[in-house]
Here is the input.
Amino acid sequence: MSLRVTRRLVAVLSVVLMTAAGRGADETRPNILFIFADDHAYQAIGAYGSVINETPSIDRIAREGMRFDRCLVTNSICGPSRAVIQTGMYSHRNGYFRNGNVFDGDQRTFPKLLRGAGYQTAVVGKWHLRSDPTGFDHWDVLIGQGPYYNPPMIANGTRVERVGYTTDIITDLALDWLKQRDAKRPFMLMVQHKAPHRNWQPGPEHLATYDDVMIPEPPTLFDDLATRGTAARTANMSIAETLTRFDLKLDPPKNLTATQRAAWEVAYGPKNAAFEAAKPTGDDLVRWKYQRYLKDYLRCIASVDDNVARLLAFLDDTGLAANTIVVYCSDQGFYLGEHGWFDKRWMYEESLRTPLLVRWPGVAAPGSVNGRIVSNLDLAETFLEAAGVPVPEDMQGRSLVPLLRGADPGDWRRSFYYHYYEFPGAHSVRRHYGVCDERYKLIHFYNLGEWELYDLHRDPHELRNVYADPAHAAVVETMMIELTRLRATLDVPPDHQPSPPPPPASPAPGTGTP
Ligand code: CA
Here is the structure.
């Protein structure tokens, strides 16, 4: 037998043996259940100390696993975040910079790699990458953003009309798939909710939840943004000015069934009549809009939490819980009235940080908390390592498995690069990139030629831009060097090179603003 034939025979036998091991009764590779919300702020999760709502089922994942307190996204908006998760690469490498781009489904993704290693892979719910999902044995996704009620969906290429509340439907579809899967092989299932994305339509069971309470206001609800830069002052995402009648449910959704519409009228009719009678103005109107917005947002989350409970119960009832990694996270953070805003996009904290909870029995200690800088960029590599699949060298994150095991690697990242591109675009947030470490955040609005620096220890609400404060000159210099280093390491294209910093203006002493 020639050497070449022998090698080929060995290779074929290896694959057969690996496949047999992978499909055998002694399969030990963990399942992965990835539960993903859209725009779910950490401020609205009990495990993160929410003062505005309760999320008992999501909290259970934290109680039985690890809570990451500083999970940062690379580009804080729906589609780009999903592309980063699929590829383990920044937007400038996966080609998906802003909503409306079309994801190149031919590129390498972590579901493809898991599938190639014998995992059953599926995605249900919001996909939002415009091209069809690839790398999945089964997919059943909303069309674009998708509605909260009665969503048409695309199931493996075929349009299907569905009646009901989308958050419930997505969970139904997830459970249906889990029940029919091949129980001898591990699975990776992505359950991706549309909720609690704008315009925050509650489900039938939560239309009246929070009716009798006042949601606490954040201390910066009436921030005038005077100590920030041009970008913050010219954005269009204020509760006072930007929310529409449709957002505020003064006009009902148009696609409800007669039964759904009747329930909607029972819930919103009296509320709207009270509003029309009171006719609030000025700050009172902002406060009314805040209450209306937040309550609907939290009602949507209540349904997500109910549906997390259904998934966890299924894992319990089937005995799958012990060998299934359960992840709960969101595609980015969100403003819940801080600085008078809703929405995301910014490198500022409420937008940059996203919740990340991971339950992995026998690996992640129950109730553990991790404060290291981690990212949605790390998820692909985490899932690959957990599954024993080699991690491609050109992925740009880092597996969280060591952190989940309780280790604290000395060379873990101490800084993080961010880049937002969608301008012109919805909400008029200017393009920016920046670097943050465990204390400082340097942001460059490069089309404006403006820089901002925040000291998160002294100014956790980012109310005071100290870029031009001479007392921070050394910090600016250090952060500038780190920004340049990260951009080089991450292979950011040169057309986004930072322009030279403007000479410090003579600052007004004590204000830190030029
Ligand atoms: Ca989102």
Residues 38-39, 78, 197, 331-332 surround calcium ion (CB under 6 Å). Confidence is low (pLDDT under 50) at residues 1-25, 502-514.
